[in-house]
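Anyone else keep sequences and structure tokens together like this?

Example one:
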Amino acid sequence: MKYIINFILILLWSLPIKADAFFEDYCIGYFEEVYWVLDPIEDEEVRDEIIHFFTEKFPQSESLNFNLYYNTSTRQFIFDDQNTDLSQFIEVNYPNFEILLLDTYISLFTQGDNYCPAFWNDCSEESLDSFFSGAKEFSDTWRGEENVFSFLENDFINNQCISLLNTDIDRTQFIADLNILIKELTKN
């Protein structure tokens, strides 16, 4: 009887860890899709409204607006832009919504050593299922760029993954994390 109780206790203690991991995998899929839909929106008025939405809902994000400098030869953003001739680099602006989404997305998939499930490296079937479940939930709620505000106000803000958004983002750490993402995306 003692062994059965110990076995049950061990199972119960391990369940939250797995549930949390699958929740995080789900959110990786969800945030990846949200980012890749909002990022390419070029209409300045729409982008400004998205920035305003994030500032309103996440007041600490107002200061999150980074101009970063990309080195095409190394395929990385540079860290020291104060004492460097910036004319040889491409300036890229990341407004608050991009920083919040990317920071959370990258933070979630870099918690493991294989970047699963964002890059599908040696993932369990459950992990991939959770990832695609998050991506599917996004797809089921996204109704096109012309409905972006409806999506943000009704679907995005009520998604369970919102609890993972971090507004305390260090610029240097963000650059380091962004460089990890770029490295993974540009692997040959």
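And example two:
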Amino acid sequence: MNSEPIPWNPSQPCTMALRRALPALRDPALAADLLFLERWEIAPLHGAAAALRVTQLRRANPELAAAIRAELAELRR
């Protein structure tokens, strides 16, 4: 079990899954979307717009979304 706290820097990913994925991205908008997804997995926002955006990002990036959720679940234990 990893007992290290989740690091917080709004411009950087918290999970290793996203840290590994970001260097391969060439599109800053996609990187921002994935950071939004990660932040939402940490602390979900209320509202239909945020939920729709997260649903679309999960659908477009199912493996990464699952890896982020799994890593955060492990950190929360």
